[in-house]
Amino acid sequence: MSRQPRTQNVTTDAGEARITWVTSPAPRLVLAVSHGAGGGIEARDLKALAAALPGHGVTVALVEQPWRVAGKKVAPAPKTLDTGWRGLWPALAAPGLPVVSGGRSAGARVACRTATELGAAAVLALSFPLHPPGKPEKSRADELLGAGVPTLVVQGGNDPFGRPDEFPPGPYALAEVPHGPYALAEVPHGDHGFAVPKRSGVTEEQTMRVLTDAVAGWIASLG
What we know:
eight-stranded mixed sheet; 6 helices
């Protein structure tokens, strides 16, 4: 069983951030995941990962960016988000374990943009916003492909910010060791927040199990 979560405030050049640590009893790496531009660490996917992964030897660090800690409703510019993430990194690396850099939506973009610079072991991109809804021509594929480290994208099948079949060609299957550009796992019927319609016949619990199993399997393949 994981230990009780503990919080840690971290001062960055973008303001005070906060980490909620959910530690594994036998950790071999840290998964640091941040929220998107419209929500916090209470997102269903982040909560599911924090509940499931400590049993797989993964300490989960749920990261709240400074704007969220300050109670603001609107996320700042990408450059400011990156500044906050950089300022958090020493605390995330302090346990002395490899750190997988991750996040959902805007947080996934931050992880991709800063991975090589910060020395991340890999990137987990949840609901990567490949393009604004209805504007596939405004692709952010370069951010994803430029991460420079093994990357897993977990994407809802009905995500208006980019369905799985809209992503660049060439992703590795999860069964392969993901040392290529990226691997992609689909959450059937999921929207941008991995909610699924009742008519799908799939429960939220089943949906989150698809997500956590994909992430756990991918992390195990990292070696």
